[in-house]
Amino acid sequence: MEKKNFYVNMGTQEVSQIKYGNNVDFIIQATDEEVLLLREKLNNMDQANTRAFFRAHVPIMSYHNDKSNDDYDIGMTGAYQMLYDLGDEQAKEHIKSMGILSDKHL
Q: For labelling alongside 17, which of 3, 27, 64, 73 has CA 20 to 30 A away?
């Protein structure tokens, strides 16, 4: 399957084939299937974030034992791993400098 350029903004969770505004945090080369997998990871992060928001309003539930926070962190690490694997050299260097992935994943 043919790989195409995609522009990714992790802050807005935008994945686009069109370079527009501030959607160029990362440039990746990916197939349609790889983009769908990345999109799924981003959607899962969003769902975990929503669950964590509601949990935050329940005072008897401690935040450090919250599966939603763990799910969000796992999703974010997975998304950045995909960006690293599919990204151009600038994306790889930026992700390395962030320190979000352990050395074994680089």
A: 73
